Amino acid sequence: MLAQRALLAHMAVRDVRDEVENLRQSTQAIAVGNQDMSARTQSQARSLEQAAAALDQVNGTVQSAAAPAGEGATLARDTRVVVDRGKEAVQNMVRAMMSINEALHRMGGIIAKAGRMPAACVPGVADPSSA
Questions:
Q1: How many domains would you assign to the chain?
Q2: H or E element that contains 123
Q3: Is 22 domain-assigned?
Q4: Are 47 and 39 in contact (CB under 8 A)?
Q5: Could you tell me which residues come within 8 angstroms of residue 47 by beta carbon, excluding any fewer than 6 positions away?
Q6: Residue 131 forms part of a structural domain
Q7: For position 68, what pLDDT does the model report?
Q8: Number of helices (H), then strands (E), in the chain
Q9: What is the pLDDT along the chain (131 residues), one digit of tens a residue?
């Protein structure tokens, strides 16, 4: 019976040793997995930091470009106002020139008629022979 108890104790100790070894191997596998996950997490964090830096740079570029674009839009609007005023001035000048042209044609007609009539017949024109 003592031999049997010793055998059972020996088997129990062996089973405990086997379980401890299994636990050690599992713990080691978990540690390796944790290290791997930690390395991947750090890599992802670096990638995110780089992406954030790139986005900051893009944001800065967009903001830098936005100010001149706004100034360009203002200049375009101001230029449009000047062009519209210039167009109106040219149209007024063309109308005035057409009026002058019409008046000159009328004067030419009056002068032509005056050349065929005696001066006394043209109102407001003095007779050159009476001078």
A1: 1
A2: none
A3: yes
A4: no
A5: none
A6: no
A7: 83
A8: 1, 0
A9: 888 988 888 899 999 999 999 999 999 999 999 999 999 999 999 999 999 999 999 998 888 888 888 888 899 999 999 999 999 999 999 999 999 989 888 888 887 777 775 555 555 555 555 54
- Is 122 a domain residue? no
CA distances from 23 to 8, 19, 28, 33, 116 (A): 22, 6, 8, 15, 135
Residue 117 DSSP label: S
Residue 75 lies in a domain: yes
Residue 81 sits in which domain range?
A: 2-117
**Structural tokens at position 25:** 């191997």
Q: Would you say the pTM of this structure is higher than 0.70?
A: no
- Return the structure tokens found at 10: 């020996």
